[in-house]
Amino acid sequence: MTAVVTTAAACAAASVRVAPALDPAKCVAEAAQHPRPGRHRQRGRRIDAGVLRAVMEDAYRHSDTEGGRAPSSTTESTPAKARVRGGQSCFQDGSAVALPTEEIPDQNLLAGLLASSQGTAYASALLRHFPSIGHVISAEASQLRAFGLSGRDIALLRLVHEIACRMARAEVRSRPVLSNWQALLAYLQTAMAYQQIEQFRILFLDRKNTVIADEVQQRGTVSHTPVYPREVMKRALILNASALIVVHNHPSGDPKPSREDIETTRQLKAAADALEIELHDHVVIGHGKHASFKSLGLL
């Protein structure tokens, strides 16, 4: 499972393009006029493997069987082999279905999640506006509604994101964090990399560096999150934590620490030392990459 989630982090966009002001309704209408791009144009693209894993149980596509006929459960004792496009074949209640694979384009995968008959047009419009499928999954509900998505569609996108986060979080909780660092980074990428506002997350650890609690303490703006060392330490004492790892994201995609980040970390370190609590690291999450204060010699 770690490999799946780590692949998701590795496949995240390395940079962000600023989307121009668009009319969502116009985007959907235009997308409906364009045929779906062929696979030859998509071969260089990689989908978010975390999202793929999350939807594999639900996003099936029915395919024609050999000769163009559906298998008959009344005349055949064993299921006929199915010819499927872009995925593996399996059978459920006597019918052939296809499971998504990494060869399926982002647009087709996203369209498979949407209940609307215009799912393909919606998916095309969303991917024209947002930098990646990860940004779509993490977008604000108000933004998605502007493109015409139903409440059911928005809830399903949220569900996919939450499932991916829980899969990654389970890996982090499976053993001490410091010996499971790559799993931690994969989880933080899944949970935070595509958020459009900054959030400040704290992992509270016990004496064995196992996670006691994983909490988002503050949410801010696109470029700033207020952090209060007193409140951080107060919560650590309540949880009887022996160590901390603090994390925040940069919606810009560039994880380079700012001067304010460095000063905040200095204050947190001083407060933690006074209470004999170890501050292991401050990690800044970007798009597909991160910055570690400890690795940079800033902590």
Give a written overview of the molecule.
The protein has 299 residues and is of the alpha+beta class. It is 40% helix and 16% strand. The chain is built from twelve helices and eight strands. The chain has helices at residues 2-10, 24-33, 39-42, 49-55, 106-113, 119-129, 133-138, 141-145, 151-173, 181-192, 229-238, 259-274, and strands at 61-62, 87-92, 95-100, 199-205, 211-219, 243-249, 278-285, 290-292. A five-stranded mixed sheet has the order 5-4-6-7-8, sandwiched between helices. The protein has a three-stranded antiparallel sheet with strand order 1-3-2, with no helix packed on it. α12 (259-274) links the parallel β6 and β7 (278-285). It is elongated and about 65 Å long. It starts with a helix and ends in a 7-residue tail after the last strand.
Secondary-structure element pattern, one letter each: HHHHEEEHHHHHHEEHEHEE
Q: Which residues form runs of ≥5 with pLDDT under 50?
A: 1-20, 38-86, 88-92
Assembly state of the chains shown: single chain
Average pLDDT across residues?
75
Radius of gyration using CA atoms only = 22 Å
Query: Main beta sheet, described?
Result: 5 strands, mixed
| Broad shape | elongated
Distance between the termini: 31 Å
